[in-house]
## 1
Amino acid sequence: MLNYSTSEENYIKAIFHLQRQDGTVTTNELANELKTKPASVTDMMKKLKVKKLLHYEPYQGFRLSSEGSKVALGIVRRHRLWEYFLAEKLKFTWDEVHEVAEDLEHVSNKKLIDKLDEYLGFPRVDPHGDPIPDANGRIEISKKICLTDLPLNKVAVVSGVSNQSSEILELLEHKKINIGVKLEVKKRFEFDHSIEVRIGRQPAFTISKELAENIFVKYGSQ
Amino acid sequence: MLNYSTSEENYIKAIFHLQRQDGTVTTNELANELKTKPASVTDMMKKLKVKKLLHYEPYQGFRLSSEGSKVALGIVRRHRLWEYFLAEKLKFTWDEVHEVAEDLEHVSNKKLIDKLDEYLGFPRVDPHGDPIPDANGRIEISKKICLTDLPLNKVAVVSGVSNQSSEILELLEHKKINIGVKLEVKKRFEFDHSIEVRIGRQPAFTISKELAENIFVKYGSQ
DNA sequence: TTAATATTTTAGATTTGTCTAAAAATATTT
DNA sequence: AAATATTTTTAGACAAATCTAAAATATTAA
C-alpha cells in the first residue's frame, strides 16, 4: 500500500463517508464537506484519478475505486482505533475524541496500528458506535438495533418496524419517520422511558417508549 | 503557543539537538542532519528568524531563541512520551520507537499530550534514557551515573572519575577517555562484567569492570 | 596577504495544494 | 425549447518547501 498525503487522505475519507448516503459524490458536496472550494476539489479529483483511487469523468461525479476503498478503510480504521484509545485509555469524553483522531489518523505506520489494535483488545466499534475495520480492511456490517438501544447523538437510518399494524404506521407517517430516514436520539427520560429524537436538522420531538420499541435502525458507516 | 508546520518543527528540533554539542549551529551541519540541501536550510532560517524562534545573522550560524527553545522542548516532550508509550504499552523494542515517534510527535494537541503523560504515570525518561520535559517544558538535569549503569547504545558524556589515583589516570589517558568525551556502551559481558565501549565513530574497545565502576557519565539531551 | 578552497546565500525553478475569476457544461424554469 | 440558474471545470496566480546553479563571503594554506 502506497503512502498518501494528509490532504489526499482527507479527500478519500470524505468521499468514503459521502458515498454511502448517495452512491456517487458531487464536486459541491465534497467542497462543502471539506470546507474548501469546488475548483480545489476538481484539481484533487484529477490527481486521485491518475492514482487510480477513484472513478471520475468530468461533470459526472466520482466514486472510490476498489483500491480507493481499501485506502479509505485503512484511514477509517486508524481514526476509530485512536478514538477508542482516547476514550478508553486517556479518558477523553466521546464528543472530544473525533477532533484529536483527525490528526492521529494520518500517522500511517501499519505496525503501530496493528499493535494498538491488539493493545486495545481488538475493539469492534468506536465510542460513537461506528464499526472499526480489521487489519484486512474488513468491517462488520451493522446490524439492526432497536431505537431504545441506539447510543445518544449517533446518527442512524430507520431500517424496519416490527409491529406492522395500521395504527403504528399512521403514527409513523404523522411523525415523518419512514424507512431510510436518518435520525438520532438526543435524550432519554427515565420517568416514562420516552425518547427525544431528531431528524436531520429539524427540531427534536418526543416519541413514546411503546413506539421506540418497534422501530429498528442501522448505524455504522458501511 | 502558536502552531508550526512539520517541517518547521523538524528544523527546530534538529537545531535543539545540535546546539548542545556546539553552541551555535552551522548551515551545513543542519543540512546534513536533516538530509536536505544548505540552500533549503538558509531559506528556513530566514523564516524562523522572522518568527523570532532563533538568532541568526547571515554567515554567522544560528541558535534558538528562548521562544524557540520552548517550542523545541514541547516537541521533545511529545517525541519522548510517545516513545515511552510505544515501548511500555505497545511492546515495541527500544530501537523501533524512534522512527514511529518521529511522526507522532507532530500531533500537537496539548490536552492529548498531558493526558498521555498522566496515563503513562509521568515517566521521567524515555526508553533510551533521555529525560522527558514536563508540561511546563522543564527537563531534569541529567545526573551522573556510573558507566556500569549506562543503557546500551546511549551516548553519554564522561563527567567524572571517582578514584583519582595516578594508576587509573594513566589507564584513562591510554584509552583516551577524558572528561567531556562522548561514548556509548555497545555490549556487556556476563563472564567478567567487562564492557565494550565506543568513542564517537572509532572502533569499539573493551574496559574492565574495575575501570567502569570508577567512570561516571551524564546523559540526556540537555 | 593573496590565492585556493570551502561554506553560505541568492536567484530562479519546481511541486503540492490552494484560491479567484471566467468559461463551459448541465439542470431547471417558464 | 429557450432563457435562466446552477454546477463544474479551466486558466492563471500564490504560498510553502524544496531543489540546482551561480554568486558572495569566509576560511585555509602557500
Note: Residues 5, 7, 36-37, 39-40, 43-44, 47, 58-59 of chain B lie near DNA strand D (CB under 10 Å from a C1').
## 2
Amino acid sequence: MLGCNHEAEHHLAAKAARENMPNEADIARVSEVFKAISEPSRLKILFALRQGEMCVFHIVEAVGGTQSAVSHQLRILRDRNVIKARRDGQNIAYSLADEHVVAVLELACAHLNCKI
Amino acid sequence: MLGCNHEAEHHLAAKAARENMPNEADIARVSEVFKAISEPSRLKILFALRQGEMCVFHIVEAVGGTQSAVSHQLRILRDRNVIKARRDGQNIAYSLADEHVVAVLELACAHLNCKI
DNA sequence: TCAATATATGAATAACTGTTCATATATTAA
DNA sequence: TTAATATATGAACAGTTATTCATATATTGA
C-alpha cells in the first residue's frame, strides 16, 4: 500500500480532506444525531410525529410497543434535540424539534425511492 | 394509561400516524442508511469524499486507521448505496453516491450549528 | 393528604456492530 | 508465470445498545 494511479489528483483530495475534516467533537455530535434517528423504533416515532404534536399515550398507540420502551426512545430523541417536549398537565406532549428533521427524513426516502 | 387531555386532536393524529406509517421494509431501509452514515469512522470517510473521488489508499491517508478497517466501512457504505465504486487498474476509486448524501450531511450540521 | 393517572428511569440481559488479525482475491509489471 | 501492489473479507473479541421488568416521580381530583 504505497500509492495509486491517481497520485496527483487523489493526493490533493486527501490533503484537502484532512485539512477540512470536522473536529472530533463535531463528528461525534453528527454521529449521535444520526444514531438517534437510525433505529426503527425511533424512526416510527418520528414518522408519527410528522402528523403533529402527541402525548406519550398516543405515540404508543401510533407506533406500538410498551410505554416503557417508547419513553426510553423519547428520551434519546429529546437528548439529541430531535424532538422537543412540553408538559401539559399530567401529559407530556412531544413534537419534532424543527424542520430539519422532516427534511432529512424526506431526503432519505427520496434517496431510497420509498414514499412517506 | 387510558387517555390524555387532548384526546380529540391527539387521537386524530395517532390515527393518521398509523394510517400513514411507512411499511416495515421501508422503515428498515431508512434505518440501514442512517445507521450507515452514523458511525464516526464512516462519517469521516463521507466528509473526506466531499473533496472528490479517492482510492482506498488515499481514503486511509485522509481518515486514519488501518486499511482493513477502512475497507470494511467502505463495504457497508457501498452496500447501502451511500458511496459508489469504480475500478481503475489496481485501485478502486470511491465517490459519494449522489447529491442526497451531501445534502443530508449539511442538514445535520446546520441542525447542530457546526461548520463543515 | 390519598388515590389514580401519566410518564420516566435504573438495572440486567440479549442482540448487534466495529476493529483487529490473518488471509484471500485481483491487477499489473517483469 | 511469478512477484509485488491494492483491496477485500471471514472469524473472533470487545464495546455498544434496545428491550423488559420493576419501580420512581409528577400531576390531578377527591
Note: Chain A touches chain B through 71 residues (CB under 8 Å).
## 3
Amino acid sequence: MIRTRFAPSPTGFLHIGGLRTALYAYFFARQNGGKMILRIEDTDKEREVEGAVGALIKTLHHMGVEYDEGLKIGPNHLGAVSIGDHGPYVQSERLPIYREQVDRLLVEDHAYHCFCTFERLAEMREIQKRSKQQPKYDRHCLNLSAETIKAKLDANEPHVVRMKIPEGETVVEDVVYGRMVFPNADLDDQVLLKSDGYPTYHLAVVVDDHLMEVSHVLRGEDWLSSTPKHLILYKMFGWTPTVFAHLPNLLAENKKKLSKRQNDVAVEDFLNRGYLPEALNNFVATLGFNPKSDQEIYSMDELIRLFDLTKVNRGGAVVNYEKLDWMNARYLREMDLDRLVRVLAVLVESERGSGFVEGKTERFQRIVSVERGRLTRLNDILERLPMYEDAGDYSVDLLVWKKADREDAKLRLEEVLALLEPLEESNFASVDQLEARLKTHIEGNRLSTGNVLWPLRVALSGQKNSPSPFELAWVFGKIETLKRLKTALKKLS
RNA sequence: GGCCCCAUCGUCUAUCGGUUAGGACAUCAGGUUUUCAUCCUGGCAAGCCGGGUUCGACUCCCGGUGGGGUCACCA
C-alpha cells in the first residue's frame, strides 16, 4: 500500500514550495490507489502561530489537495476533525510516543543523555570554528557513569537526549537524486529529545513515518543532508526505512531558495491577489517536473495520471511569475463562465459591497463575459467595474477618433442615436445582433468603421480602452446606451 | 570551510550517442482590429570550460569552474 504524507509546520501560511510537495504527494498517492496523510509538525513551541493549523487545512482544501488521514475541516466548516486510525496526527499530541521510543534507544545504547549547557555548546562551537574544525558535538557527555546520570536526573538538571552516531558510512538511495554515500564521521550526534520534552524533527519524523506506515517520503531538498541520520535511526529502531524522494528547491531570481521575507511565497497571498487554484497548481506542479511533452496546460486529473517521480528534475527551479500571470489569464479565459461569475460575485461583494451585484445578476454576468478576456487576475475586475456604473467625466477630445474631427464625431453619433432609438429593448439581447446592425449601418452609408465605432465606444465607456461598443451596448441595454450617447452628444455640442 | 547536490535559450523545460538542438513564458517585428486585450505569422536567443571513451557526443567517464543546499535543544 502506497502511503504518502505532507508534514508542514504550522507557520501561518502555506509556502508555494510546500504546495508543490503536497501536490506531488497527492498525485503519487492517487495514481497508485494509495493514501495521503496530513501531519502537523509543531514541535517548535517558539514558532507556534495561533490559528495556523486551521488556516493550513483550509488552504489545502481550497487548492484541491485531498488527503485521506489527518486533520480536516470540520462539519459546517467549523473547527477541525481528525480522520484516520494512525493518529494523533499532530506531533505535540504524541509526546508520550516519542518518550517511549527514546527510552528504547537509551536502553539499547543508541542514545545518551547530555547535560551540556547552551553556553558550553556555544563556546565549543566557537573554538571549533576558530581552529577551522567542523562544528560538531564533542561527545562530552557520552561516557558519563550511570551514577552521575542518575544523580543529575534526580536533581532535575536540564538535559537532552542525543543519538550516538555509529562508525561507518550511510548510503541514501533517493528516487530523484539516486545513490549517495555519506561518511558517518561527518554526522553530528543529533539531539533527539529537547530539554522541554519535545522531540526534534529528526526523531519525530522517523517515529511518525514508521508508526503511520508511510511508504514514501516526499520532501524538500533541504532534508537531503540529514537523511543519513534518519536512515541510521531506522536502523537503530530495527525498522524498514521509507522510500525517499527529495524535491529540488524553488528558487528566487537570485538563484537562492525562495524566502518569505523577500519573495512572494504564501499560497494564501496568491489566492488573495486573484490567482485561481487550478492555475497555481498547474504552474507549481510543472516547476521542476515535466511529463516529457510540449503541453503547458494540465488539469489535476492529467497531473495525477502523468506524474512521475523519476521525471522530477534535480536542479532548483527559478519561479517565473510572468508565466504564472500568463497561465492564470488563460485559465480565466477558458473557465466555465457561470463559475467565474460566481467567484467574481463573491470577490466583488466582499470588496465593494453588494451594490454591484445584488439585484443585477444578469448585468453582472454580462460584464464578466465581456471583461474576462482582459483579466490577468480575478481582482482586476475591481478596477474595471466603475466604468459600468458611470462613464465618468471624460474629456470631449477623447470622443474624437485620431483620423476624424469633432464635427464628424458628432454627426456619426447622431446617426447611431437615430438608428438605435426606434429599436426595441429585445434588439439589445445579443452582441452579434447589435454588431450586425451597426456594421450594416456603416457599410450601407459608406462610412468608415473607426469614424463610427471609436466615438461610440468612448461614449459608452468614457475610456480610452474598453470592450467593443457592441458588447457595451449589450451590457447596458437600450435605456442606458441611449443615455450615454446623449451625454456624449451634449459634450460635443 | 567540511559534506552533499546541480549545470541546454534571460526563465521553465524537451532531446534516454547520430536532430537545421524542439516547445512555453518574456522580448522584438509584422498581421487581424474602432481602442485595449485576444488571436495569427515571423525573428532574436542555449548545450560553462578542459580532457578522455567512441566512427560520432548536449547526452557516458574524469577534472576544473560556477551555482545551490546543509552543517541548532528550527523545521
Note: Residues 160 and 419 of chain A are 87 Å apart (CA to CA).
